[in-house]
UniProtKB/TrEMBL annotation:
<dbReference type="GO" id="GO:0046452">
    <property type="term" value="P:dihydrofolate metabolic process"/>
</dbReference>
<dbReference type="GO" id="GO:0050661">
    <property type="term" value="F:NADP binding"/>
</dbReference>
<dbReference type="Pfam" id="PF00186">
    <property type="entry name" value="DHFR_1"/>
</dbReference>
<comment type="pathway">
    <text>Cofactor biosynthesis; tetrahydrofolate biosynthesis; 5,6,7,8-tetrahydrofolate from 7,8-dihydrofolate: step 1/1.</text>
</comment>
<dbReference type="InterPro" id="IPR012259">
    <property type="entry name" value="DHFR"/>
</dbReference>
<keyword id="KW-0554">One-carbon metabolism</keyword>
<keyword id="KW-0521">NADP</keyword>
<dbReference type="InterPro" id="IPR024072">
    <property type="entry name" value="DHFR-like_dom_sf"/>
</dbReference>
<dbReference type="GO" id="GO:0004146">
    <property type="term" value="F:dihydrofolate reductase activity"/>
</dbReference>
<protein>
    <recommendedName>
        <fullName>Dihydrofolate reductase</fullName>
        <ecNumber>1.5.1.3</ecNumber>
    </recommendedName>
</protein>
<dbReference type="GO" id="GO:0046655">
    <property type="term" value="P:folic acid metabolic process"/>
</dbReference>
<comment type="similarity">
    <text>Belongs to the dihydrofolate reductase family.</text>
</comment>
<dbReference type="GO" id="GO:0005739">
    <property type="term" value="C:mitochondrion"/>
</dbReference>
<dbReference type="InterPro" id="IPR001796">
    <property type="entry name" value="DHFR_dom"/>
</dbReference>
<feature type="domain" description="DHFR">
    <location>
        <begin position="5"/>
        <end position="258"/>
    </location>
</feature>
<dbReference type="InterPro" id="IPR017925">
    <property type="entry name" value="DHFR_CS"/>
</dbReference>
<dbReference type="GO" id="GO:0046654">
    <property type="term" value="P:tetrahydrofolate biosynthetic process"/>
</dbReference>
Amino acid sequence: MLPLELTLVLAATRDMGIGLNGTLPWTGLKKEMAYFARVTKRVPPSSPPPSQQQQPALNAVIMGRKTWDSIPARFRPLRGRLNIVISRSAPLLLFPSATAVENAETNVVVMAPSLEQALAYLQQQHTSSSPSHSRNSSSETTLGKIGRVFIIGGAQMYDAALALRETRRILLTRVLTDFACDTFFPLAALQQNVSNGDDGEKKKKMAGVEEEMQEVEREGGEWKRRGQAALDAWAGEAVPAGVQEENGTRYEFQMWERD
Ligand code: FOL
């Protein structure tokens, strides 16, 4: 079975806050949101053999039901991406028609009752619709018509995804300005390495963090921040480097990977 690779995408405050009252804690980060849209849309380039080159049709974005609800109606389904919504009340995996992936531009949404079922669906897309998987120059595995697979939230989805070995990468937008939050990213291993200063206090505040870090270590996983060149190469663009500022909010684009 093809190892499918998952990338988490999120924006989080220094203490890993990602949400407030069912929506994002901040407003007015237009360029940040544009980055999210570009990166999740861009399919990785295929590489040789050129005769068999098959560009994936589009990337997939997997989200929990509450995250789906949080996206403004006019923006959902997120265009140019296969949208997969996880909901326990999804009666069954709703298989779109055979042409659904090609037609995803025209608002196809797949619902699945669990992340595992969603991944099984994506695997099936590969085995049923792709004669051979393609590889790009960095040997990234793609799934035929499906390019990259992103987990776009929320906390429950990130939590489920972090438990999977398939999750290899986190595109983290570190928001450096403080915002009130009631929802947090469920892993603070990043926080410890990233924030300058008062780690101790925050670490105490977040229960279960230590346990989670140990769990990751036991699995043999280890998250490391990659440099700008690696981020640019993976994102397929020159990602704005260093601290950005929009409407008085400061943030930084980062990429983390685990072995
Ligand atoms: N990751 C990052 N880096 N920033 C985020 O804001 C973010 N948000 C979510 C998940 N990962 C993220 C979940 N929330 C839209 C709205 C909320 C949302 C995700 C996406 C949304 O409307 N996206 C449109 C862009 C619309 C626009 O141009 O303003 C899209 O097409 O992606």
